[in-house]
Amino acid sequence: MRLVTIDDIRTAAGRIAGTAIRTPLLEQQWADQGPLWLKAENLQGIGAFKIRGAYNAVAALPEPARQRGVVAYSSGNHAQAAAVAAKRFGIPAVIVVPDSTPRVKVEATAAHGAEVVEVPIGERESAAYALAEERGLTLIPPFDHPDVIAGQGTIGLEIAEDLPDVEVVLIPVSGGGLASGIGTAIRALCPDAKVFGVEPELAADTAEGLRTGSRVDWPVDDRARTIADGLRSQPSELTFAHLREVLDGVVTVSEDEIRAAVRVLATRAHLVAEPSGATAAAAYLFHREQLPVGRTVAVVSGGNIDPALLASILG
Amino acid sequence: MRLVTIDDIRTAAGRIAGTAIRTPLLEQQWADQGPLWLKAENLQGIGAFKIRGAYNAVAALPEPARQRGVVAYSSGNHAQAAAVAAKRFGIPAVIVVPDSTPRVKVEATAAHGAEVVEVPIGERESAAYALAEERGLTLIPPFDHPDVIAGQGTIGLEIAEDLPDVEVVLIPVSGGGLASGIGTAIRALCPDAKVFGVEPELAADTAEGLRTGSRVDWPVDDRARTIADGLRSQPSELTFAHLREVLDGVVTVSEDEIRAAVRVLATRAHLVAEPSGATAAAAYLFHREQLPVGRTVAVVSGGNIDPALLASILG
After folding, report:
1. Cβ–Cβ below 8 Å for B104 and A315
2. Which residue ranges does UniProt annotate as crossing the membrane (chains A, B) (predicted)?
3. Residue A105 carries which DSSP code?
4. Mean per-residue pLDDT for B187-216?
5. Cβ contacts (< 8 Å) between B26 and chain A: which residues?
6. How would residue A75 be classed by pLDDT, with cut points 50, 70 and 90?
7. pLDDT tens-digit map of B80-113
């Protein structure tokens, strides 16, 4: 299996410039458990990192295939990302989302001109493949593709440029595209840094898989329990192979810790994070004993939280 | 009366580098009423722009005076700013705050090692002068000082660097230090841009003063009505003289518009803004008819909102 390289990530960086925002790396002065920077991917145009991988994958398509259009399935942010990428190229996009997706994400996707199809969470992948077949669309997967991984990896490039002496990088893990890409970049550019994935306890399949040495399947209904609705997927063979190479470990965080991290990010960092996007900060806040001491970057992967949920966490 | 110049602002920029964050200027893709960038001063270490002016003023003091310490009065964010600036120099700080100040701001100030004195809002200035006299401290005013104005002006330098063809700049106005400084920088570097102050309707003394041609006093109890607790001051002779020079107008926004802007900033821009910090965005959202069309920057001046208030706005 060929893994994504730093050269693939550099190529992706050239493609996405002008579409993805180069998000700020924000030093936190309140953080008294060791120096902390937040990579604020919640400040991307779509409110999440997913635009990087989706746009890179669409940009890499041969022109005739691209013109026929794309289809994507997603728990939410990849949906918006694929829709925006298609809009940029002026091509059709069909987005398959689980019917449990927060309204805020469904509406944001439709607002970008995409056709949105809602299906039960277990059927989203098969429905997307069927649509691709029927309509001649190219499937843009949320994580299981080298171009998607390379696109997400551009975050690692930016971290290495902005903080070359970073010592610890904390990255949410779901399907693993984000951690695969960032980990690959950090390994290449900051070889002394330690890279950790972060998962909810309720969707800790990657922690178990890396411990046992091979990918494990958790029932989708189990994974659907976590409040971190963006972290309910699990790695593919491709991303798992990357994670084995690039991760020094996985930290698991509880639901209460995720909620507390959303609150801390809002009140201390003045950033709105969705639960998935707050997990890396939760690891910093509540699991220092499992992490090396040092200059730490937590990736805040997204900010698309339902306002009512944010209100309940703050109130 | 000598007004602050672009050279003063450049000097301030050199002093505050390494203490104040160079905050990101964030392009907003959701903004369908014309191109919008947010200058995210809520992402400063203290959650507000005030560190720029306070640090510049402390840094500019002669060494013997600085060693005796400083005193400041403030509705909140300047308090934290003066405390942090003093801590950086290792000198004593006494902060006088109105007894109506949100707890989040009082606690943040004390956490920086300052002595906090709470007094009725009308007495904060006199109390600060009395403390300065008694203890030999230097008063660092929240806005009525050339070094404070020059420090806030560094925001304008950054806007001009990041978006040289900016056409409209929207700035919250209270005591007027922020708008005086930014306006001076924009006038010098982007002479074609229009610069507007933004005030709550309930504290619209500057709008009235510029209309009538001279500074007006509104009763402090009237100004205390607005939810924008950072915008309850009014200009001094010094800042009013600057505002006459640099503002093309003042837009006033309602309390409902301020609340709505806090919500939009959280849900669309993923930024936590305090009410005062959301007023410029409110002008963009709800008063387009009073503003020129064009590439617009709204300054999000701060993010220190009580979590319960943010929850009530989102819920």
Report:
1. no
2. none
3. H
4. 96
5. 21, 43
6. low
7. 899 999 999 999 999 998 888 778 778 878 888 9
> Which of A172, A145, A119 lies closest to A55, judged by CA?
A145
Please state the φ and ψ torsions of residue B272, each to the nearest 5 degrees.
Answer: -90, 115
For residue A300, what is the nearest residue in chain B, using CA coordinates?
B270
| Contact B83/A at CB under 8 A | no
CATH of range A51-139; options 3.40.50.1100, 3.40.50.150, 3.10.20.440, 3.40.1280.10? 3.40.50.1100
Classify domain A6-48+145-314 at the CATH class level. Answer: alpha beta
Residue pLDDT, tens place only, A270-279: 999 999 999 9
Catalytic residue among B174, B233, B236, B301: B301
Cβ-nearest to B314 among A42, A267, A310: A310
Q: Do the domains B6-48+145-314 and B51-139 sit in the same CATH topology, yes or no?
A: yes
Q: How far from each other are the two terminal CA atoms of chain B, in whole angstroms?
A: 49
The rounded Cα A91 to chain-centroid distance in angstroms is 24
Cα–Cα distance between A186 and A160 in angstroms, integer?
7
Instruction: Give the residue from B106, B178, B177, B94 showing the smallest Cα distance to B138.
Output: B94
When pLDDT is cut at 50, 70 and 90, the band that residue B75 belongs to is low
Position A263 pLDDT exceeds 80: yes
Measured between CB atoms, which of B21, B24, B315 is closest to A311?
B315
Ordered by start, the domain boundaries in chain B are 6-48+145-314, 51-139
Condensed to tens digits (0 to 9), the pLDDT of residues B231-255 reads: 989 999 999 999 999 999 999 999 9
What is the interface pTM, i.e. ipTM, of the complex? 0.93
Report the run of H or E that residue B259 belongs to, with start and end: helix B255-267
Interchain contact, A270 vs B272, CB within 8 Å:
yes
Q: Which amino acid is at B218?
A: W
Residues of A identified as active-site: 50, 301
Residues of B in contact with A28 (CB under 8 A): 45
